[in-house]
Amino acid sequence: MADVALQSGKAAKELDRAAALKKFQLPDVAFAALTKGSAIMVLVILGGVILSLVGGSWPALSTFGFGFFTSSSWNPVTDKFGAAAAIYGTIITSLIALLIAVPLGIGIAVFLTERCPASLRRPIGIAVELLAGIPSIIYGIWGLFFFAPFLQQNVQPFLIATLGNVPGIGFLFAGPPYGIGILTAAFVLAVMILPFITSICRDVFETVPPMLKESAYGLGCTTWEVVKNVVIPYTRVGVIGGIMLALGRALGETMAVTFVIGNANRVGGSLLAPGTTISATIANEFTEATGDLYVSSLIALGLILFFITFVVLSCARLLLMRLDQKAGI
Amino acid sequence: MADGYVVSNKYSGRYRGNQIWMSLCMAATFIGLGMLALILGALFWKGFAGLNVAVFTQMTPPPGSSGGLLNPIVGSLIMTVIGVIIGTPLGIMAGTYLAEYGQHSRLASVVRFINDILLSAPSIVIGLFIYELVVRPAGHFSGIAGGLALAIIVIPVVLRTTEDMLRLVPVQLREAAFALGMPRSFVIRRVVYSAAKAGMITGVLLAVARISGETAPLLFTALNNQFFSANINQPMASLPVVIFQFAGSPYKEWQDLAWAGALLITLTVLALSTAARALSTSRKK
Description:
The complex is a heterodimer of chains A (329) and B (285). With 329 residues, chain A is mainly α. Helix content of chain A is 78%, strand content 1%. A two-stranded antiparallel ribbon of chain A has the order 1-2. In chain B, helix 4 packs across helix 12 and helix 12 packs antiparallel against helix 13. Chain B contains 13 helices and no strands.
């Protein structure tokens, strides 16, 4: 009797458990589907960005064809648009910014990892990250009211008087000191990307096994020789990845540049004169653009910018991913 | 004489080279920190000079007269809230998928890669996207479009931190919960989320810090509004856009307000990132 009761009780319990589990099944599946859907949403956003940019720029691209990339005329009155000046400005400002910020950033990272007293390491690291957190519009407004006048009064006359007379590169530093212009924009960009380069370089320098460094020190290497022969070769891929990441930021940066670039549509000539970049042109003109072709040309500029940054950032991520895999093994 | 021996003729070149390069590295650090000091110094000097009670109580003035920043402050708050409300759940869910379900699957790898690119994609392009998606079909600029543009910037930040934080939760915790018979989604929601709560909040704080200074995506989504408006279906003022407009103007009153606004944004960002840092260090202990 007792046996039977026990068995039927067991059966009832089994049934209860199945029912209870079933109650959990639906929310369980729903939650998993929801997370997967959100992940796919990221891909949808990327697809949406590409589709909308291609769609929006189609009128301009089909009207001007390949000439859109090579023409430097930008004339809303005659409806003739070309992207060459904006592409030129974007690339030249970013490259000059890298030229300034990369040596500085690597220098700071070397100082922080090799020479800095332990008590200063954390505060300086925090200060560098603080610099990275400042919104770009702050750099822009500071560049406009403080840095550009400073350059105009102190640095640019000096550059014109010295480098301006050097044959070959003299034309780059010719003309009056405007204050605002391509070189100023590049300087502000350099200040802006400096913290990115510094913090990535510091992070990858810290991945160097201490044993390698200590072996080199044990052989009698100086700090500089250890950095040059051990740290930098070991972290080369990561440093290049970090530089590419910073380049991606610099190419797409809008507000820091728009304030100080001067918005003049031209290719070549003096670095001290005003120019423009893709993002500055869009930011300055989009809301005032009238006519479908004008708006469409601005969106086409956006498409070009997105394409360039996508390629640069992809390269950066692939390089940094290779580094992660190396660290994983 | 031991020192003299080490720095003998043969080695003095290497010694001097080391001195020179290390001094250059130190100089680079001084330049970097000097720039930070210059920027913050200028900001505090000009910003506090422009800051007064009227900034918080009055509307943006017409050119040449004094006023405040009440409408852009409110507009920024509204659009930030919209951005966070839409972006955070999506980011957390997608991050959960990458850390808990997808892990090393092909879909997860692709999403992770694309997300890292969106994280540093030019924000002005996001503005163009929302313009095409929302503003052009609707026929007018609106606060909701601005909020959506900000949401798209929030998603990658929250996604990234959520995934990183969930991965830090020890596997043993999950296994213990599984052993008690908990279904997977319950383990994630009840056990993993509560273990990673501080880190996930850090991610949201960082995302708010990131969008509170974003200007480019708002320029042609929310546009601007000279008057007070809490209607998210209308053009809406925001602090960064007003700073952009006022700083570029020749009027002194406008420039002063731009500096005051810049100071407000920077203080907000600094407060948020300090809070995020405090939260993540308290978690480590």
